[in-house]
């Protein structure tokens, strides 16, 4: 059974991967929307498979259908509720095209950075929760696989965070630190919360797994997929999404997570 230090270490690594997304802003004139839309599509497909095989199915094996489905709806609607408070901008990479535009209003740039940055930071929480819940239930392989998938998905998320933040005039080092913290903070905090909750009351695992799954599904369909279809490369993003789902199906068939 994993301990709290393992949870902290794994989620710290997964969250820190967000900082890698800040690196390409130094050469973003040579990076296309097609590349990042496809990366988002691939990450969405992998996360969908991980949510089903790593959370929903184990939840059903440990508890009732009612508990898992109740958690799915609760997690999904809680995240949608947060979206009402802090709306997300689907054209996440709008700053990608406007970088260096001298006509951009500073106040508008700062508001866009706060909006996009806040939304991405908020949506990192359910991912950390999923890792913590899996560790607490003794599903170490599932937790590690989720951490790997989430870490990979954090890279394009970090890019989406770093672009508007860099447009505010912050130095590259400050942009890198802020981007990294946007992943580490919420993911580590949510993972510790989920781990502690399930360890205190193990019977709550099916509900907690459903909750984490519902929140992740809401992130995928409410945020990641629309964001990957906003720049005219929907076919590339969709093809990458199918590849991502297929990868998880193959992994589950060969070596169940």
Head-to-tail CA distance between termini: 16 Å
Strand and helix order: HHHHHHHHH
Overall radius of gyration = 18 Å
Estimate the global geometry from the Cα principal axes. globular
Total DSSP E strands: 0
**Broad structural category:** mainly alpha
How many strands, what sense, and barrel or not for the largest sheet?
none
DSSP summary: helix tally: 9
**pLDDT averaged over residues:** 79
- Roughly what percent helix? over 70%
Uncertain runs are: 89-104
> What is the count of structural domains?
1
Description:
The model is unreliable at 89-104 (pLDDT under 50). This protein has nine helices and no strands. The chain has helices spanning 4-16, 33-62, 65-85, 94-98, 106-136, 140-166, 172-200, 205-228, 234-254. The chain is mainly α and 257 residues long. The chain has one domain. 78% of the residues lie in helices and 0% in strands.
Please render the helix and strand layout as text.
Blueprint: H1 4-16, H2 33-62, H3 65-85, H4 94-98, H5 106-136, H6 140-166, H7 172-200, H8 205-228, H9 234-254
Keywords summarizing the entry:
single chain, 257 residues, mainly alpha
In short:
This protein is mainly alpha-helical and 257 residues long. It has helices at residues 4-16, 33-62, 65-85, 94-98, 106-136, 140-166, 172-200, 205-228, 234-254.
């Amino acid at each position: 059974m994993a301990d709290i230090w393992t949870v902290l270490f794994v989620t710290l690594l997964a969250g820190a991967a967000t900082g890698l997304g800040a690196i390409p802003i130094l050469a973003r004139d040579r990076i296309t929307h097609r590349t990042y839309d496809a990366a988002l599509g691939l990450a969405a497909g992998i996360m969908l498979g991980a949510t089903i095989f790593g959370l929903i199915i184990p939840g059903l094996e440990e508890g009732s259908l009612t508990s898992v489905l109740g958690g799915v709806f609760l997690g999904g609607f809680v995240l949608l509720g947060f979206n009402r408070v802090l709306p997300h901008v689907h054209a996440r990479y709008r700053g990608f095209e406007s970088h260096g535009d001298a006509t951009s209003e500073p106040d508008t740039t700062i508001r866009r950075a706060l909006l996009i940055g806040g939304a991405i930071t908020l949506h990192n929480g359910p991912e950390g929760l999923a890792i913590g819940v899996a560790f607490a239930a003794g599903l170490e392989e599932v937790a590690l696989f989720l951490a790997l998938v989430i870490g990979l998905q954090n890279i394009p998320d970090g890019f989406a965070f770093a672009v508007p933040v860099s447009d505010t005039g912050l130095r590259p080092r400050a942009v890198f630190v802020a981007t990294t913290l946007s992943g580490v903070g919420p993911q580590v905090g949510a993972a510790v919360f989920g781990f502690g909750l399930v360890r205190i009351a193990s019977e709550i695992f099916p509900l907690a797994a459903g909750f984490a799954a519902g929140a992740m599904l809401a992130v995928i369909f409410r945020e990641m997929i629309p964001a990957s279809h906003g720049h005219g490369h929907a076919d590339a993003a969709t093809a990458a999404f199918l590849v991502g789902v297929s990868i998880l199906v193959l992994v589950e068939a060969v070596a169940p997570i």
